[in-house]
Amino acid sequence: MTTTATATKQFMTSDQLLEDWQGHRNLTRRVIEAFPEKELFEFSIAGMRPFSKMALELISIGGPALKGIVESNTEAHDEESFHPKTKEEILKKWDEETEVINHYFSLITEERFQETFNLFGQYEFPVYQNILYFIDNEVHHRGQGYVYLRALGIEPPFFWERF
Question: If you placed Cys at 27, which of 94, 116, 126, 162 could pair as Cys (CB 3.0 to 4.6 Å)?
Answer without folding.
Answer: 162
